[in-house]
Amino acid sequence: MSGSVAAERVRSLVEGDPIVLVEIAGAIADEGRMPPEAITNVAHEHAARLADADKARLRTAMEQMLMGHDVDAALEWLHQAGILGMLFPELEATVDLVQETGRQHKDVWAHTKQVVKQTVRRPLVRWAALLHDIGKVPTRTFTPEGVHFHGHAEVGARMFDKVYGRFAFARDERQTIRFLIKHHLRTNQYSEAWTDSAVRRFHREMGPHMTDLLDLSRADITSKRPGRRKTLLEQIHALQERVHVLAEADAKLPPLPGGVGNAIMEAFELPPSRLIGDLKRALEGAIERGELEARREDAYYVAHIARSGLVPNVAPEKLAAIIAAGGDLHAPDDDEGPHKGVDPHDPSPGVLSCGHDPENDPCKHRDAD
Q1: Stretch 271-286: mean pLDDT, rounded?
Q2: Do the Cβ atoms of 125 and 177 come closer than 8 Å?
Q3: 127 Cβ neighbours under 8 A, 6+ residues apart
Q4: pTM reported for the whole predicted model
Q5: Looking at the predicted structure, is the pLDDT value of residue 211 above 50?
Q6: How far apart are CA 62 and CA 56, in angstroms?
Q7: Taking phi first (over 0 means left), then psi (-120 to 50 degrees means alpha), and beta for anything else, what does residue 234 get?
Q8: Residue 306 carries which DSSP code?
Q9: Partners of 143 in the beta sheet?
């Protein structure tokens, strides 16, 4: 079939159902072959009609494309056909968006296509990979030291709140994609210097998204230097292993230290009673909910009881003294863990907020390779 004949056939199909355009992209993702230019031209003519397409079917067609082996080729065709700008203007804006001055680097769009292709074939993770760097457009700044994208993960997560309205996502699916975009830099700061407490806190805060986040972080490495790529992958693997080891150890140990009951009685001047057991169960519940850390010093838990007012009829002066003795609610190693960020209300690794991949992340000036 000639290109012109095929184009007319596609035109007829698209006039009846514009989602055919995204299905063409799905075929490209499966087969890796670009269609004739005439078909691309037809797509250009009709791309605007996707604005009125059924959201559920549009999401399904997009997802089938995202799961394809040659998804990078399909994404590029969406750009060439004017469909990307229609469905994802936030992504269209990343085309030719330079990531560093003075050197030849992949632009954000090229990086994004590679990350999506490298990501594990789980739909929500691929959606997150597709959109993980959209926040770089509004956050790009130029300084004498180079190009920066500070806070782009948090900004990108907020931008996703407008993107998902064009597709049919369940609430939990939206939350997962948004979480992954927002936290896709969180593994960057890991080092062997992290304390066990910092690793536990990271694990608790990532919760059920832990595996997806680590897989996205691996895909976000697009360095062309094998040694650098190996180092970054080993860093992620080391974090995963520490999380696993600590989780196994924690499962075998009680959450509270053995002497916390005596510490409670001494601090509040209480006799042995049912109240002590109730207070310990309240502490265990707070640990299970992630409000407190496990196996901290006695004063940490006693201070929490005082803050929460769980013991009645205690003088304010005494409560203040107990709280002061317990110190801050967070561990003293907060500044070395994954909490140091640019937004005090949304702690994340601000020191590496420019991006994950050092090859495409000009957080600081680097000499040419």
Answers
A1: 94
A2: no
A3: 63, 66, 177
A4: 0.75
A5: yes
A6: 10
A7: alpha
A8: H
A9: 146
